[in-house]
Amino acid sequence: MFQVFKKLDWFFKHYWKRYVFAIVALIIASAIGLIPPKLVGYSIDEIQFETLTVKLLVMLIAGYLVLTFIHYAISFLWDYTLFSGAAILERWTRSRLMDHFLRMTPTFFGKYRTGDLMARSTNDLRSIQLTAGFGVLTLVDSSIFMLMIVAVMGFTISWKLTLAALIPLPIMAIVMNKYGASIHARFTKAQAAFGDMNNEVLESIRGVRVIRAFVQEKQDEKRFQKMTEDVYQKNIEVAKIDALFEPTMKILVGLSYTIGLGYGALLVFENLITLGDLVTFNVYLGMLIWPMFAVGELINILQRGNASLDRVNETLGYDADVKDAENPKLVSLVNSIDFTDVSFSYPSSKQNQLVKVNLNVKRGQTIGIVGKTGAGKTTLFKLMLRQYPGLVGNLTISGVDHNEISLEQIRSWIGYVPQDQIMFSKTIRENIQFGRSDASDEEIFRVMDLAHFLDDIKQLPNGLDTQVGESGVTLSGGQKQRVALARAFIKDPEILILDDSMSAVDGKTEAKIIEHLRKERKNKTTFIAAHRMSAVTHADHIIVLEGGRIAEEGTHEELMKLDGWYKEQYQLQQLENEEVIS
C-alpha cells in the first residue's frame, strides 16, 4: 500500500524541506489541539469541587483563545505548504508527460490511443496529486496524531480505559486492508474504461462529418451509450467499496464510544478517575474519530494513487524508438543526401516497405517521387525525419550517417507538409506562424501568395484572424493544404518535403504554386511526392517507386523515352485534363 510513496521518492527528495516543514507544523498543530480538552476537564473538576474563581476562569478562557489563534496560524502554514507541494507534483508530472509525448515516435502512438493518454494526463494525475497532498495528511493523522491522542489518554487519564476503548482498532485494520486491495483493482479498471470512452469521444468529434454523411448518428450514439454504461458500472463497483468505508468506521467508532462511556462511568463510580477526566476522555475519543476515519481514507487514497501512478509510470517508462547518439556530430550545411541500399519495414510489418533504394541528392536539387498508393513514398520521407528505427543500409547527410546527427538538427533543416494536414484550433495567422513564431504579417502575406492563398484570405470573415476551428473544420481541404504549405514556406527550410500536399487543389493552382517554388527554392533541396505527374515534371530527378523499389528514374524527358509506368500515367492524366477542359 505504501509503495506509492516509494515510487514518488524522487519528488519527496527534491522537496524534502517543504514536506518536513509541513509535517512538523501539522504535528505541532495537532499537539496544540490536544490541550483544550484538558482545559475543559480541568474546568469541570474545578466547578465540581467549587474551587473555580473568576480570575482562574478568565485565565482559562484567555489561554483557550490564544491556543485557538496559534492553532489557526500553524494550520494555515502546513495546509498551504503541503497542498501547494502536491500541486507542484501534478504540474511537474504533467510537464514530464508532455515532454515525453513530444519525444515519442509513431510506434508509441500506435500502442497508446489518444483518449487513454488524455485520461492519464488528467484523472490519473489528479489522483497522484491527492496522494501527495491529502494522502500525506491522512498518513500523519492516522499514525502520529492517533498515537499522540492515545498517549495523552493513557498517560493523563487511564491506560485501562484507553486500551478497552481501542479494542475495535485491530478489527478495523483487517477490514480496511481488504477494502484497499479491492479498491486498487476496481479503480484501475475504471480508469482504463474512462480512457476508452475518451478515445471514442475524440474519434466521434473528429469524424463527425463522416458520421453525418453516412447517417450513423444513432449508431454512434448507441456505441457511446454502451461505453458510458461500461464506465458507469465500473465506477459503481468502485463506489460500492468506497461506500463501505464510512459505515464500517461508524460502527467501530460507536463501539469505542460505548466501551469508553460504559467503562469510564464505572471508573468514576470507583473514584479511579474524576468526572472531568471522563469528559476529557470522551472529547479525546471524539477527536480520535477523524484519525480512525483517516485510516480508511488513507488506504482508499493510496490505492487509487498507486493505480494511477502505475499507469503514468508505464507511459513514462516507454523507451523512445529513436534516440540521439551519445556524441552527435555537428553538420553545418546540407550539401548532399545519400540513400545507399536502404531497406526498411515497419515494426508491425513483416514485409519490406522499401527495398535497396539508392538515391543521390545534391544541394539545390528538386526530387520528384511518384508511384502507386503504398509504393513507399511517405515511408521514404519518414526515414529522412528519423521517425522510425530499423533502417537497413545507409542514409547519410553531407557524408555523415543520419543516426549520428541529433534529431533536433535534422528536423530543424526540414519543412514537412504531410498528406494529412494538421490545423491547430487557432487563427490562420497563428497556424502559419507555427513555422516561424516571429513572422510579421508582411512575411505571412508573402508566403500566402506563394501558396496561392491570397484570394481565399480576402473572402474569410476576419482575414488572418479567422479561427480555423477544431482540426481546421472551417476550411476546405484545398485551403488547409495551402495554409500548411504557407507554414512550411515561412520556415524557409534547407529541405522542403511535400508529401502529396497539393492533391486537393486544382491543376491551375498547383501549376502556380510549383512556379513560385522554382523561383523561391533555388540552392535549396526540395522533395515532391505526388500522384499528378504535372507536379514533378520540372524536377531535376524523378524516381518511380513500385513495391518499395525504384522501378524507373531520371528527368521527365528521360522517363518519357522509357515507355514505362511514368509515361503511361503522364499521358493518361494529360488526356483526362483535355477531356475536362473540353
TrEMBL record:
Membrane association type: Multi-pass membrane protein
Domain of life: Bacteria
Subcellular location as annotated: Cell membrane
Alphabetical list of CDD domains matching this protein: ABC_6TM_TmrB_like (cd18541)
Organism of this sequence: Virgibacillus oceani
Membrane-spanning intervals of the chain: 20-36, 56-89, 130-151, 157-176, 251-269, 281-302
Domain ABC transmembrane type-1: 20-304
Domain ABC transporter: 337-572
Molecular function via GO: ABC-type oligopeptide transporter activity; ATP binding; ATP hydrolysis activity
UniProt name for this protein: Multidrug ABC transporter permease/ATP-binding protein
This protein's record includes keyword Lipoprotein: no
Entry keyword set: ATP-binding, Cell membrane, Membrane, Nucleotide-binding, Transmembrane, Transmembrane helix, Transport
GO cellular component labels: plasma membrane
